[in-house]
Amino acid sequence: MKTKIKGGIWAILLEIGWELARSYGPTIWKNIKAYWDRKSVAILGITGCGKDSLLARLQGHEIPTVHMNTTDPERRSSFQIEYSDGLGDTICFNVTEGMNVGGEDDDVDDYWADVAQDADVIFYLVDTGRFLDEINHIPTKLNSMDERELRKASPSLKRVSHDMRFLVANKKQSARLAIILNKIDLPLMHAEGDTIDEKMQHYSQDLQELKNAVTKIAESGLGVHRNILAGVFPLSCKDSEMFAQLFPVILRNIAKA
Question: Which InterPro entries does the record match to this protein (predicted)?
Answer without folding.
Answer: P-loop_NTPase
